[in-house]
Every structure is written in structure tokens, then in C-alpha cells.
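Justification of resources, computational component.

The compute hours requested in this renewal are based largely on the per-chain cost of generating structure records like the one below. Each record pairs the submitted sequence with a full C-alpha cell output. That output is archived, and it is also reused by downstream analysis tasks.
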Amino acid sequence: MKQNDAAFPLTLIRIPSRFEVDDTGPTIAVATFRLGRGPCGKDVVELAIDFGKLALRITQRHGDGTETDFLYFYVDLTGRIEVSYG
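The structure output for this chain reads:
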């Protein structure tokens, strides 16, 4: 089920989860996705969230026409997902 409506565009998504950063083991942190310049240097112009059977997918669309997906399996979530609309 895709959650994105042109009348209420997503402006912020926060996902508390457990994930591996390197060989030191799992880290628990909050991943934040927002519109504007991201850590990769690209300009995020649209966010979308899709809830699947086993995982949710965050899609970032960039000003240069590219997009990036991030998968979070439900078993790795450690708290509530925060979604803001603008």
C-alpha cells in the first residue's frame, strides 16, 4: 500500500530501527528522511513510503531525476514511525 498523496505531500519521515553500519554489529538509531539537500549532496524533491508484507520502502526522488529506495524490515523497527505532511 503506497502512502503518498499529491494534496498532502510527505515532508519528513523518521524511522527508529536496528541496522548494521559496519562489522562492529547492529546499531540502533533513527533514520531521518526530509525534503531538501541530503547527506549525499542531492536535492530531495519528493518522498514516498510503501508498506509491504515484510518491509517498508522509502523512496527519495531527486531534482536531477534520479531516485533512491531504502528498505526497512518490520522486525528491525524499534519504535514508532513518524510521518509529517506539508
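The mean pLDDT is 90. The longest strand covers residues 10-20.
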